[in-house]
Amino acid sequence: MIEKIGKVIINRDLLNPKFEEYKIRNDSVEMTQISLEKEVLEQYNTSNRSDYLSSKMNVFINSLSYNQGNFYYFSVDGELLQLKLIRDEFEAETVFKLNNKKRLFSPSIHFVGNQKLVSDGADTLILFDDSWKEIKRFQLDHIRTPKFIYSALMFENSFIVVFGSLKTIRKDDKDHMTCSVRICTINNETDEVVNREILANDFPVAFQVLTPEYGVAIMDSRFKDYLELPPEPVIEPYYTWSQDPESIDVQFDLDKLKTKYDADKVKILVDRITIDDKTFIFAGKIDAGSSRWTYDLNSVNFTIFKLNQGFWFDLFSNDYNGVHMISAEEEQFNEELVQGLNRYTASDNEYISSHLSTHYDEDLADRDEFVDYYCNLYNLKESAPSQEINLSTRKIMNVSFDEQSKIMKVNFQRDVDAIGVTISPTTDFQLDCKHQYTFHALAYVYLSKRDTRFTFVSEDAKFFYLIDSKGYVFIYECSGKMNKSTQMIAEIKEMPLGAVLIRHILYVLTKNSLIQIKIK
């Protein structure tokens, strides 16, 4: 059956576009549902988490897929699920589970030889052997901010890990989430951990370490330009604090607070201070039953007694002299912040489509503008790139990296086309960018106004697969000729949590099933 369900642009004049009806084949797709053991996924609750992080940033998506031989790995809601392919059938097993699932990022896995490095979504790396027996743990740094791993490399007796550490900066009286990219060297024999910052206030789409000296990153120039700030003014401390083995004493100077914020009223709660419309959140949880509060005209004194070992280690963050400030409109997203930063900056600014939201620009194809996405080569001892390649594109859809060949594959949208390039280092360590394929007039730009979850391209570049957040699967067959291609569609009833393309068969992981999709 051929069904006409949409329109697609057929010329390159975006100011005066012409459309024709686009034909979809849905009788050419065969779907098979493989039921998983219920207990494997029974605690994956996605009903309240429709806003997933954008799949254009591999490292931020809550469901990552990896492969090693016949093993495929998906990270979903605090658990790392291993699927083993045996004659087109899968066996499922949970190989890693967070003790506390309220982390900002799900665990991710990085293969280094026969060993596996797993990040816990916070500040710890866990080394496993080939049979998933834990060998040791490494602390990335002492600053307890949410972290995610871009890439990892084993070199001689050391692990080299590039990770991002989230932080908040102020602009236009609003808080914006940004990222400090750091490189961490871990001596596998002495367990010594040394890390340093490579990029400040930047949010690479991907950052792959190639050698101990070089790395390659996909950068979004809009993000850095928008967040480039003048030096922060020196803020006079408005509290003093001290600690002993049993307690912490903190004293706030209310005169300074009122002068700084011109506030008529300061409200003290067990875990935050509200001054006018600004809320200051303490990084650690304060138990009201274990706190003592005293007041006088000029200060507020309180003591927090020790609840357990290391309780106050990061009671106060480094921002704003010890407390993290969020704006009033962001307060309503506090629960989402804990669960995954789904909408933290979704309403910050129309110009910068937030990296931490799934906002989809429905009018994107109608605006004749490009975004400067750069592919940068970095000497890891320097913060400035040694080489830049401007991809001049609208949207990065997918970035992947082949460890053996050291080739990065990038799918991106230009005009209404999908472009595929490979990026690899030369012998003299320059980046070589090669065009691999173009899918002309990609119809999903008009047919699917939803969030893109996963994109794949077959090895022969004949088929382009796109899965959106509502479960629609678009399979675009490229004939090599303009407007002569056919698009096929399948519909999955549940939220896609992960996906992997094996040859020409697409496997999509949902809450309780693995859906096998192939072309007849």
Automatic annotation (TrEMBL):
Subcellular location: Cytoplasm; Nucleus
Keyword Heme: no
An example Gene Ontology CC term for this record: nucleus
Principal subcellular localisation of the protein: cytoplasm
InterPro entries, A to Z: CS_dom, HSP20-like_chaperone, NUDCD1
Keywords: Cytoplasm, Nucleus
Domain CS: 234-316
Superkingdom, natural source: Eukaryota
Protein name (database record): NudC domain-containing protein 1
Organism: Thelohanellus kitauei
Organism ancestry: Eukaryota, Metazoa, Cnidaria, Myxozoa, Myxosporea
